[in-house]
Amino acid sequence: MKTFHVTWLTFFVCFFGWFGLAPLMPTIKEDLHLDKSQIGNIIIASVSGTIIARLLIGKLCDTWGPRKTYTTLLLIGAIPVMCVGLAQSYTSFLLFRLAISIIGASFVITQFHTSMMFAPNIKGTANAVAGGWGNLGGGVTNMVMPVIFAAIVGFGYTKAEAWRYAMIVPGVMMLIAAFLYFRYTKDTPAGNYDEIEREVKVKGKTDYSVLKDWRVWALALAYAVCFGMEITFDNIAALHFVQEFKLSQGSAGFWAGVFGFMNIFARALGGIFADKVGKKYGMRGKGLLLASVLLLEGAGLILFAQAGSFGMAIVSMISFALFLKMANGATYAITPFVNEKNVGLVSGIVGAGGNVGGMLFGFLFKSKSITYVEAFGYIGMIVIGVSLLVLVTRFTKKEKAAELEVALENAA
């Protein structure tokens, strides 16, 4: 449990640093004279580096261990977070945003570590709670960073200086988290990898034949439209509320934070329900649950796009946020069981799918011919389409074959 709590808290800090710039974008847009296309590119960059990082990090978790992997990621990621204030142009800011995006790979380590620490019957719940409370950082940063920004302005600094100094805070938080993670966690309940000589056991473990398994790609698609939409909304919500409903930067950050704050329970609900459904109906039941919450997420997004008032926009946002975050939890209640001998690799692929979704959605918000409102509507339709694909995917398809393979290996 010590490892569990340090893990979700560290993930929270990573999300805080990853999206610390999002609620400050109205000020940054003015300071760096950014247009809609450039902001779209920044959104794309903010999730792009994570795609490659997540694939690599899955392999490192399998071989190097989550403790060393997480500590290294935190130390490296803190550098661009604290130094982004040095950006003086669109190009330099874009490059810093791309570098910061590697922090998103922290999710794979979080899910891998909780999968290692808990029994199969509560693995979905543990993954969902750790992921949800960590994702909560995306909501809290939307609420807190404008306050830090305002406090710095209150000390006499200009707005252009304040957003730069504000980013030092999440960078320092990441350095503290690196120390806590290395000092107070273990790779497995039995001890760290080097203590139990795990490196010897896992040589040649990663089997890239999982890339041929459609179930892995179905989960990656599902995660692309739930988590991918979450990080897109974390990036764009404050700016959308400022532009569409003329809110102040502080008020926009608060309401954008409400979206992220639902992670305190919504993602966990997805994992808990998936575990309960799994006990009664197996993996097929988990798949049906995932398809259902994705369908409801898509419908909620379409309602959000059609909202004619700020009040209706908030109500529909809360609705689609609930099902979106439940879908996040339900996805990772299935992921650890698709190929139990390659949990790290499968988690990395599915996690990278989330960032691919966020990157592709960024192109919609970049387009000068599509408004933000229209983009939300299109994404809602895409989510509904993916829910139908998940519905027809048989997650139980290869279970018996896998059981036979394990039995034969044990016999040998």
Automatic annotation (TrEMBL):
Q: Name one GO cellular component term.
A: plasma membrane
Q: Which SUPFAM superfamilies match?
A: MFS general substrate transporter (SSF103473)
- One of its Pfam families is MFS_1
Location in or out of the cell: Cell membrane; Membrane
Name the source's superkingdom.
Bacteria
**Ribosomal protein recorded as keyword:** no
Among the GO biological process terms of this entry, one is: nitrate assimilation
How this chain sits in the membrane, per its record, is: Multi-pass membrane protein
Give the chief site where it resides.
Answer: membrane
Give the protein's recorded name: Nitrate/nitrite transporter
Q: What organism does the record attribute this protein to?
A: Lacibacter luteus
